[in-house]
Write a structure and sequence with these properties.
Blueprint (H helix, E strand, L loop, with lengths): L1 E8 L1 E2 L11 E2 L7 H17 L4 E9 L7 H12 L8 E6 L6 H9 L4 E7 L3 H6 L6 H14 L3 E8 L6 H12 L5 E6 L7 H7 L7 H17 L3 E4 L2 E3 L6 H7 L4 E4 L4 E4 L5 E5 L3 H8 L11 E5 L2 H12 L6 E2 H8 L5 H12 L3 E4 L3 E4 L1 H4 L2 H8 L1
Parallel strand pairs: 1-4, 1-11, 2-3, 4-5, 5-6, 6-7, 7-8
Antiparallel strand pairs: 8-10, 9-10, 12-13, 13-14, 15-17, 16-17
Length: 383
Amino acid sequence: MNISLYIHIPFCRSKCDYCDFFSVPCGKKDISDEYVSALCREIDTRCRSNNIGVIDTVYIGGGTPSLLKVSQLETISKTFRKYTKVPVSEFTVEVNPDDVTEDLLAMFQKCGVTRLSCGVQAFEENVLSGVKRRSSGKTVVKALDVIKNNWKGIFSADIISALPGQTEESFLQGVKKLISYKPEHISLYSLTIEDETPLGKAVLSNRILYDFDKADDMWLLGKKLLEKNGYKQYEVSNFCFAGYEAKHNMVYWQLKNYIGCGAGATGSRYGDDGVRFTNTENISEYCSFWNSEGKTIEEAPGIEEKLSLEIQSFEFIMMGLRTLKGINLVEYKERFHREIPEKIKAIMHEWAKNKRAEYKAGLCFSLTSEGLLFLNEFLRQII
């Protein structure tokens, strides 16, 4: 069986005000060997139980994976490599600019990492400090210089538009600065205001005034600048030079099976017996369970969700339409044992007529670059 593997490292030195991902601040403490031991035991157990023969892609995210010690990353890498007969086609690790050093990059390459994903987010000092980012403008530039001069694999970078305190001019200067380092892949995210984050609460209470229309305009300007410099949009928020699409992320967008390991990690198996499992976010409980002897995978603490074919068919459309490639209608029929519903076909025709989509009857359906801006509207129409 072929599979992809997501590994979660839920620790950060500090938490950014806008972040809604599961992570816990650890201050100056190192990531414990106890957590890494539990993580590797889970990887072992899930790979064995799924009879893994090939691991296609591996993604270590967080949190802040760049806080891992050399010995810890080596242990994790050796653990999953036991279950693949061929080299992993893409091995990605996320890094915070503050952690980037020549030694860190050398350690990544020694462990077989092929793709580096650096959370740049912004260059402006006031903007970074305003959302409690650990990195400063100076450390961001320093990190990019180290990566440019030392990293031999694929380089991917994230940048966010319309952070509080950001002007159109300062944002575009940041995008230009990032482009000058020629990362093969850039994720351009429009800031999402999540209600339960410190930033979300500040916006909801009007302690921070936020112009959502202006934010949308700023993202569009960033998109145009990337495209002007040779980056091709292939997904809602992702741009790259030809051939450098993120293989692991395509697993999610194409609804392929993947295993999630680590506290708070999610894994999904699709098909007639589809299921999604999310591990407990209680790190003590997670470590206690996986470091204990005699436990079965069925006892693992977390939440299991059965995925009916109805749920999977909607997710297939929702995730597939995030990409400019869109959805294959033949594959839809093979997966769900039926044609696309007539109601959805009619909406597809209408969107194609309005130049927001391309529809090849019986073959594929995709939104245009303009249509991607209205993806949520399309999904509301088909529900």
